[in-house]
Amino acid sequence: MADADGDADGVADCVDGCPADGAKLDPGVCGCGVADADGDADGVPDCVDGCPADGTKLDAGPCGCGVAEVDADADGVVDCLDLCAATPACTTVNETGCPIDSDADGVSDGCDNCPGTFAGDAVDANGCSTDDEDADGVLNDADACRGTAACAKAGVGADGCPADADGDGLFDGCDQCAGTNDLTDTDADGVPDCLDACPNDGDTDGDGVQDCQDNCPSDALKRDPGTCGCGNTDADTTGDGIPDCVDPAPAPQPTPNTPGIQPFIALGPVLPGGFVCGIGLAGPMWAMAAAFLLIGARVRKGRRRGMHRN
User: Which strand (E) or helix (H) includes residue 296?
Assistant: First the structure.
């Protein structure tokens, strides 16, 4: 009995890998019934070739069959998708192949040595600021303490930050007392110890003179005892150069509520803008008025008598 040969390819079915495919004796890459043809001659059968008509590609890729996957500027984005061809090698690009400039200074991030430059600052070719906002001698991008006070500029370091050698929270250039805590005020008089002639005494009478320099520390009106001593005025009401407290003949003063005529020197103003010095009256108004009438009557009477005698 002859061996069966179903596909009539001259090979018995019992040894034919594809007994129903007269063109193949084994499945190959594409399997029985499918030719292992290689239309683009790239060595890969068409049945598994993503681009069977493109001998340079096995799959379509981003650009598709028939278009080469070339990245001429080597920025990681193939030319068919690159909207910014020929970007510099240092440039960081986005998905379209265009440069990224995070700080908008005109220098792309990959080429920018100072990627955090403040908006509006002028920059050099490396993307670093050429401005010195606080004029402390340290350019903005290198300045870790922008806005340094004018008084502290002389003491800034390479990072643009002022020094505080005594640790009192006040920068050295602004420190009233370098090397000492300006905030210490032992006697709470509002004057820091470093500037206080009497740091432990204060100003008891509040006259602006420290107790240790005030010979009358409890008398706000006097700094020295003078002739009359602290707490007493050195007034000289007679103008004779001798304070009233030691004047054997001080200016007489009226005795309050005492009828009659009393000579005295007025110590207060009795008329706007001036003082009155001379004979004055003290006592109830009716008594003073009566005294003046009586004096006037006697004076007139005396004058009449004198006229008769003449």
Answer: helix 285-309
3-state helix, strand, coil in the chain (%, to 5): 20, 5, 75
pTM over 0.85: no
Exposed / middle / buried, residue 257 (Cβ in 10 Å: 0-12, 13-18, 19+): exposed
CA distances from 89 to 73, 75, 92, 142 (A): 7, 7, 8, 26
Each residue of 121-170: pLDDT tens digit? Answer: 999 999 999 999 999 999 999 999 989 999 999 889 999 999 888 888 88
Strands (E), the chain: 261-265, 277-281
- DSSP class of 162: B
Q: Which residue from 9, 8, 29, 25 is spatially nearest to 17, judged by alpha carbons?
A: 25
Residue 161 to residue 134: CA distance in whole angstroms: 11
CA pair distance 129, 133, nearest whole angstrom: 10
Q: Which residue has the higher pLDDT, 250 or 233?
A: 233
pLDDT tens track for 106-132: 999 999 999 999 899 999 999 999 999
Partners of 161 in the β-ladder? none
